Amino acid sequence: MNIKKPQPFTFEEGDRAVLLLHGFTGHTADVRMLARFLQKKGYTTHAPIYRGHGGSPDELIGVKASEWWEDVKEAYQHLKDLGYQKIAVAGLSLGGVLGLKLAYSQQITGVVPMCAPMFFDHSSQLTKGFQFYAKQYKQAEGKDSDTIDEEIKHLLDESNTLFQELGGIITDVQKHVDQIYTPTFVVQAEDDQMIDTNSATYIYDNVECDQKTIKWYKDAGHAITLGPKKDDVHEDVYQFLESLDWS
Fold first, then answer.
1. For labeling, which of 44, 140, 202, 222 is most exposed (least CB within 10 Å)?
2. What CA–CA distance (Å, rounded) separates 99 from 217?
């Protein structure tokens, strides 16, 4: 069966722009509801899809993790090309990591890392998440369980290089968060089973900005922008954006 691929989006509304970044194995659905919420509040939003994402897991392992950083820079430039001078960035999981990288690489008005990992653990973080994503996708294709198990095993055998590259990005950003001087709002789910939640405290403690906040959300999991606390996250991100200097 054919599975419709998600697409990048740009919702233009006001002169304040927010770049929204999805997680590893995710796509724009990770941040679409947040985008629509912010649009109603007068914010323009743009969300790219990193190379290899939004399609089959076979496509994902065929790219390099370094290409995702290139995609984020292009997405930032897209907003600049549209005429937006002031841009904030909010990202979920890997998107939060890439958002932090953008915050010490470009002129960013504010940054919101949401459930963003700072400590790389190949086996517990990436393998389980990738397997879950691959299984869901192949089930949607209508494949039987034996075929799915065999194909996922092959994918895992072929994914080591990609996972190592991804770990390198996380480790590199961890080493540079003390170069972030832009206002920062750290969002973290208390029941996050995908990452080491000490990551949130690490980000908060090490960013050098004067304006920084951290909030822990009870009864919330890793995909916090999609879960039961999403409305609280939407409102809190909006309030943070409202506190920034957009002049």
1. 140
2. 20
DSSP H helices in the chain: 29-40, 57-60, 65-81, 94-103, 128-140, 145-158, 160-176, 198-206, 230-242
Catalytic residue among 46, 159, 192, 234: 192
Segment 33-81, tens digit of pLDDT:
999 999 999 999 999 999 999 999 999 998 999 999 999 999 999 999 9
Render pLDDT for 118-169 as a digit per residue (tens, 0 to 9): 998 655 667 778 888 889 899 988 999 999 989 998 998 888 889 889 999 9
Give the whole-angstrom CA distance, residue 221 versus residue 234. Answer: 15
> Is 0.85 topped by the overall pTM?
yes
Work out the average pLDDT over 18-25. 97
Let me know: does 156 contact 131? Beta carbons within 8 Å. Answer: yes
- 9-11 vs 43-47, strand pairing mode: antiparallel
Known catalytic residue: 222? yes
34, 225 in Cβ contact below 8 A? yes
Q: Which CATH class is domain 9-242?
A: alpha beta
User: Could you give the CA distance from residue 99 to residue 182 in angstroms, rounded to a whole number?
Assistant: 12
93 part of the active site? yes
Residue 144, pLDDT score? 92
Domain ranges within the chain, ordered by starting residue: 9-242
Name the active-site residue from 93, 159, 199, 234.
Answer: 93
Backbone angles phi, psi at 92, to 5 degrees: -100, 130
